[in-house]
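Mods, move this if it's the wrong board.
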Amino acid sequence: MMNRHAAPARRRLRALAVLAAVAVGTGGLVALTPPAPAQAATRTIVSLTFDDGNSDQLNALPALKANGMKGTFYINSGFIGATGHMTRADLTTLKNAGHEIGGHTVNHPDLTQVSGDEATRQICTDRKNLTSWGFTVRSFAYPFASADPAVEKAAQNCGYNSARLLGDIRSRFGCPDCAYAESTRPADKYALKALDQVDATWTLDDLKAGVTNAENNGGGWVQYTFHDICDNACSDLAVTTSLFSQFASWLKTRQAAGTVVKTIGDVIGGAAKPLVDGPSVPAVTGSTNGIVNPSLETGAPDCWMKGGYGNNSPAFSTGSPAHTGNIASGITMSNYVDGDAKLLPQFDLGQCSPTVTPGKTYTLREWYQSSGVTQFAVYLRSTSGTWTYWTSSPWFGSATDWTQADWTTAAIPAGYNGISFALTIFGNGTLRTDDLQLYDSAGAPALAAATTTAPSSATMQATAPQGPVEKVHPTESDVAG
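Not the wrong board. Structure tokens:
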């Protein structure tokens, strides 16, 4: 490929040679210092990107600083401050060091598996959150590298200048028919091609090969994606701090071959675009049940997720016997030490989780069979999309027949607009649940007294949410990408 900068450089060198000859020929005393070797013209650009806002990614900062490199950190704003994730102060540290903050949705859903409105909310709200925290947000990465034309359009409509996929660049890990690099002027800025995400099987030679393959095949743009930088095998996507440092040090030496490191935003360019609001969701009102797929009959577990925490071993299932229809949730708990388990509405921005109004109280109901006592665990979604534990109801007694639990919350506190809840199992035994219901308490339908159980103690007074949400059991929201 012709280097358009080569000809001017040759002209400058010829001019210096002529001047030197004149000086010598006239006996002049001009002393000319030989020009320093020029750095090779840029042919290959490398971007180092980090997904999900995991706190151990901060372990990469010393190597990045030592080698004068800046990275792009794709952030799920709904995870910031949660266990194992960065804080807002950490993000500010990244910004002050010159790194780029990009978007990765609020709650990390597969955007092709949710509604168009939910996908747009996830993308737009994440960018608004990050911008409100003081960051210039131009670049986006699709969770699970999952996108279709509608999702790509949503990323563009939410004001991003680019959006990144994964696994579309040739390496020993896949895509043998692909190119060795993305173009530095991509054909589709909302479908950026990148190497497979780096995982624990990658060696230093694998990391180097991504660069040298591009250098040896015409150059271009190579994007790396890291998730965990740790020395205790913290995940199957982790690389050690030492390995990352060795790669960064080696990468710096490639400048002589015309290889440079840039952030995604600096490669794509362009100013940050105006913020865009995602579609709104109406709050639960009157006598309408606010739960989507309340009895699991339209798909199990569509709009539901496995939740829990502590030291225990729950086994989840769906099927018969059910209170109505053919499907109910079943949990069998063993090896119980502490914590709980439950199946509850998906933490999202409104497609599955009900939207509520601050200041109002809500009636929670669910049919159950249980070998021991049970209770509602309740979570709230902040207006920025972050989920936190709020409160729990008093206990409901064990029941061999289908029995309906009924409890009314305290007023929803200011700053929160979504809710998720479910009966829990917190001991060895079994719990079956079905027909979850949520009502604005002012319009809740009357109960059939014979089929209802009341809490075994006075209604608890809820306070403000108690901090980051507990860990959910592995679902799509825990998968990297």
